[in-house]
């Protein structure tokens, strides 16, 4: 009896196991991952900006897994000539594109999760923001520090000046700014015309003449003429030198305001005797060399913006000047549209080809990441691949059989065995 009971239990297990193996589980469709809000806003801005309002239009792509992230410096200028304000936007080429998981690429569902929210906040705080390359500034001028709670002041040794808000550079004082996110002009500047070009080593430079005129005007006034806003710098230091004469003297003007002056006094201005000019630095940015040939394109752009006024006596205003380190995202998307009857002329289309029913175009968008959003700046149409068509020999010969083709005997080659 015991053996018979054991056989019944074994048979029951076999029946249950076979039933489970034969039963087909219901194919549950995997839910699509939610689209991040930054990507959906970017898609809506592109569709609205390009004017895609046609019926039957489909926009696809915007896959965050294929998004490329890079850093570059953006330059923005607003030039007033007469009564016209001309905006100029320049962008450096991105040297390197990487696949980076930015916090804006996370979906809201991930952010709502308690465990993932803590990781998201930690990663968002640890993301390293791009910064400008170190640059040198020379007085007389004033610097307004924004978000400068932890600015390191080295003259060349570290000095505890508290939370810096304003730094006044006297004539001859030079500091190196590191870790700044952006540098912008606080007050408009009035620059002289015509664009007198200073000759240096056989090259004409209009920027050198502007810099010399601007520095001369700053020295003639009691108050600093030039005022800049520096966002988020990590340190302000004197120029590296072994000479103790290059140390800067610090004077406290008010809480959060200091004045830096050079122990050697003011630096003599550059002469204007053509090729003998020893100073080619573009004041107040001593990091730029006025004789550099890479600035020639910017000089030509400035001359084209000013037009005829570039050679006339007068002035023009620089209302806005801003250089900022930005994070850019490059993504691809496609636009698909159904073709209506008679919309396309098929007269040059081969008859043997199947006429397409949809028109598809591929684009690439370059967007700036700012404030948790991706703002489109440039959209270009791209060709994802080069289609190679292969045609059958019968089509090329007019679909003629071999029996009707003319027999051609090529000349014999006597050196062939």
UniProtKB/TrEMBL annotation:
Signal sequence residues: 1-23
Statement: the UniProt record of this protein carries the keyword Iron-sulfur: no
Lineage of origin: Eukaryota, Viridiplantae, Streptophyta, Embryophyta, Tracheophyta
Region (Disordered), start-end ranges: 257-280
Keywords, alphabetical: Signal
Protein's name in the database: Tunicamycin induced 1
PANTHER family: PROTEIN TUNICAMYCIN INDUCED 1, TUNICAMYCIN INDUCED PROTEIN
InterPro entries: TUNICAMYCIN_INDUCED_1 (IPR053283)
Acyltransferase listed as a keyword: no
């Amino acid at each position: 009896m015991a053996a018979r009971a054991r056989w019944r239990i074994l048979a029951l297990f076999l029946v249950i196991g076979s039933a489970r193996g034969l039963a087909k589980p219901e194919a549950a469709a995997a839910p699509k991952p939610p689209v991040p809000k930054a990507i959906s806003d970017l898609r809506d801005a592109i569709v609205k900006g390009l004017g895609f309002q046609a019926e039957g239009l489909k926009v696809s792509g915007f896959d965050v897994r294929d998004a490329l992230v890079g850093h570059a410096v953006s330059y923005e200028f607003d030039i007033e000539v007469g009564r016209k304000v001309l905006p100029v936007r320049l962008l450096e080429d991105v040297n390197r594109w990487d696949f980076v998981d930015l916090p804006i690429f996370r979906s809201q569902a991930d952010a709502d999760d308690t465990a993932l929210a803590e990781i998201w906040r930690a990663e968002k705080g640890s993301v390293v923001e791009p910064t400008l390359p170190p640059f040198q500034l020379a007085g007389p001028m004033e610097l307004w520090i924004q978000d400068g709670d932890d600015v390191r002041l080295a003259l060349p040794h570290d000095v505890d000046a508290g939370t810096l808000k304003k730094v006044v550079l006297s004539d001859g004082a030079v500091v190196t700014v590191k870790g700044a996110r952006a540098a912008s002009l606080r007050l408009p500047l009035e620059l002289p015309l015509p664009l007198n070009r200073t000759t240096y080593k056989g090259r004409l430079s209009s920027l050198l003449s502007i810099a010399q005129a601007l520095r001369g005007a700053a020295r003639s006034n009691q108050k600093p003429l030039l005022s800049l806003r520096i966002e988020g710098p990590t340190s302000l230091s004197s120029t590296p030198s072994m000479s103790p004469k290059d140390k800067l003297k610090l004077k406290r003007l008010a809480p959060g305001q200091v004045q830096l002056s050079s122990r050697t006094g003011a630096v003599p201005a550059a002469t204007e005797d053509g090729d003998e000019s020893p100073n080619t630095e573009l004041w107040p940015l001593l990091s730029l060399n006025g004789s550099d040939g890479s600035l020639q394109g910017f000089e030509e752009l400035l001359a084209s913006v000013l037009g005829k006024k570039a050679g006339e006596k007068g002035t023009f205003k620089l209302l806005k000047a801003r250089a900022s380190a930005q994070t850019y995202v490059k993504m691809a998307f496609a636009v698909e549209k159904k073709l209506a009857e008679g919309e396309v002329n098929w007269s040059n289309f081969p008859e043997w080809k199947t006429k397409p029913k949809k028109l598809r175009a591929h684009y690439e968008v370059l967007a700036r990441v700012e404030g948790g959003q991706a703002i489109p700046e440039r959209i270009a149409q791209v060709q994802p691949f080069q289609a190679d068509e292969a045609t059958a020999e019968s089509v090329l010969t007019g679909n003629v059989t071999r029996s009707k083709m003319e027999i051609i005997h090529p000349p014999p080659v006597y050196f062939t065995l």
